[in-house]
Amino acid sequence: MCEYQGFPVADDQLAVKEDQLYLKGYRCRDCGHVMFPAAELCLNCSSEQIEVAPIGREGELIEYTISYTAPEGFEAPLVQAFVRLKEGPEVFALLDATEEEMKETEAGVSLQLVPVIREGRIVGWRFGRKKGMGS
Amino acid sequence: MSRVVVAGTGFHPFGKFPEKSLKQLSSVAIMEALREARIELRQIEAAFVGNAFAGLTTGQESVRGQVILRSVGLDGIPVINVENACASGSTALHQAWVSILAGLYETVLVLGAEKLFVGNTARSIRAISSATDVETMGSRGLQFTALYAMSAKQYMKKYGTTIEDIALVAVKNSRNGSLNPIAQFRKPLSVEQVLSSRMISEPLTLYMCSSIADGAAAVVLMSERKARQVGITTPVYIRGCQVMSGIYQRRDGDYPRNAVTVAAEKTYSQAGIGPKELDVVEVHDAAASSEISHLESLGLVPPGTGYEHLKRGRFNLDGDLPVNPSGGLLSRGHPVGATGVAQVCEIVRQLRQEAGERNIRNGKKPRSGLCLNTGGRVDDDRAAIVTTILSL
After folding, report:
1. Residue B133 covered by a domain
2. Residue B191 near residue B80 (C-beta atoms within 8 A)
3. Half-sphere exposure of B215 (CA within 13 A, CB side)
4. What's the half-sphere exposure (Cβ side, CA atoms, 13 Å) at B342?
5. How many CB pairs under 8 A join A and B?
6. Which CATH number fits the domain that encloses residue B172?
């Protein structure tokens, strides 16, 4: 368990390094391949020499949709997306954005990792528009 | 390779049957398939049962097949339970086919069954979310309609396709479904009705997305020798069948990105029947847009041209390549574990020209057909892909 801005982090996909929140990526020590989510062997060269690597603070929007139904525990409208992390992996992510904000958002826009905070704990992560780049 | 015949096909209608159990749905499908195959229950030597979600929707997590088959008095045989998300039924078919090819059995039952109307839609939706990597997607807000919506948006941008074009798939499949007595939705829809239905995941509206359903489908497979012995008059053969997982995060690697194309090419080669020789196909139209993407992945039309062919009417019952004559997942319905078996039942009936009002009518006698059943999602691709080629 670690903390970010004083909040305990309760999502094992997240890591904190030097007071910054990251996605817990995995890097192969032999070939350098970066993976997210976790893999047990390197998905490129099958090496067992894998280390945790903080990644995913920044990414680029590949595509998104606004869903008007939401699974249990989530609220519609829900912005679902695929994001290409700066380090390479393509991940499914929810976007921290309203329907209105998405009207001015195109594929290719820069995104940053944002924590989902509930009842004083970080329970998950989403991606949001990078500060200073929004309209 | 020895030859395997689909000797009997059967259904319980697809739809909303809150009062019926998985056993009740299944027994109707099984008995129809047995009658068509001209055999008694006791002649079944093994059974492969495809179901995806009974564990989560009804609590029957284990021994689903034995429980269902006990209720019709089928026991004392190998019962193999098969789960592969939306491709459970076709995966069961593949395994049954292999067991006959291996020479183990000559008469095998394949059942696909699903119960999703259990009085608790949230529970059924949660069950469907489990057809993903639950840790990384299923519990993190992912919905299948969103995946299809994002693919549709990318396709539209790449090829200039309009939402009206995509609606035409739902219109065609609703017209076919209106002629199918087992279909969940039997009302033909107009483009306007499809477009004005409720938005689910933009740009896909309600009528562009398949619904949850209850239902069952069954087939009896036989060795060629057995089929001749019982007097099957129009044998339809399984010429090839491939089951594959997706191909993940390999767009820059040695593998082609599109796993459906890989599965299809293997099946064409196995069957000795190529895309140009197919007369009718059933593909996994979980969303209207996926029908066209699948046709392109299967090599039936060049990439980016599918909607042009659709608009020219090529995929209609009277077109030169009818697609989803059953109404597809959109109209026949999508009781998950039953879908792959239902696709095979439809192609068999089409090849025998026993599909009634849905018989394809383009002046050609159909000889060969293909089914594409896909399931689940892992990372950036599907979890399971099954392609089956059948012919007279």
Report:
1. no
2. no
3. 29
4. 36
5. 71
6. 3.40.47.10
Phi and psi at A132, nearest 5°, equal: 85, -5
- B185 and B300 share one domain: yes
Reported pTM: 0.96
Instruction: Tell me the longest C-alpha to C-alpha distance in chain B.
Output: 57
- Look at strands B214-223 and B107-114 and give their pairing: antiparallel
Residues B286 and B147 in one domain: yes
Q: How many domains does chain B have?
A: 2
Helix B288-297 with B259-271: angle, nearest 10 deg: 50
Q: What are phi and psi of B302, to 5 degrees?
A: -65, 150
Residue B241 appears among annotated catalytic residues: no
Judge whether B136 lies within some domain.
no
Catalytic annotation, pick one of B12, B284, B294, B334: B334
Q: Which of the listed residues B223, B238, B253 is the one where a domain comes to its end? A: B238
- For A67, the closest of B122, B201, B253 (CB atoms) is B201
Answer yes or no: is B21 within a domain. Answer: yes
The Cα–Cα gap between B66 and B79 comes to: 6
**Least Cα separation, residue B156 to chain A (angstroms):** 12
Nearest C-alpha of chain B: how many angstroms from A71?
Answer: 6
Give Cβ neighbours of residue B23 (< 8 Å, ≥ 6 apart): B67, B68, B71, B72
Encoded tokens for B234: 């129009």
Residue of A nearest to B148 (CA): A65
Torsion of the alpha carbons at B68, B69, B72 and B74, rounded to the nearest 10: -170
> Are residues B91 and B196 located together in one domain of the fold?
no
CB contact under 8 A, B150 and A65: yes
Per-residue pLDDT of chain A (135 residues; tens, 9 = 90+): 689 999 999 999 999 999 999 999 999 999 999 999 889 999 999 999 999 999 999 999 999 999 999 888 899 999 999 999 999 999 999 999 999 999 888 889 999 999 999 999 999 999 998 765 443
Domain span at residue A74 reads: 3-129
Is-contact B27 B10, C-beta < 8 A? no
Cα(B260)–Cα(B243) distance, rounded to whole angstroms?
Answer: 10
Are B150 and B200 a contacting pair, CB within 8 Å? Answer: no
Does residue B62 share a domain with residue B174? Answer: no
Compute the distance between CA of residue B84 and CA of residue B88 in angstroms, rounded to an integer: 4
Is B86 assigned a catalytic role?
yes
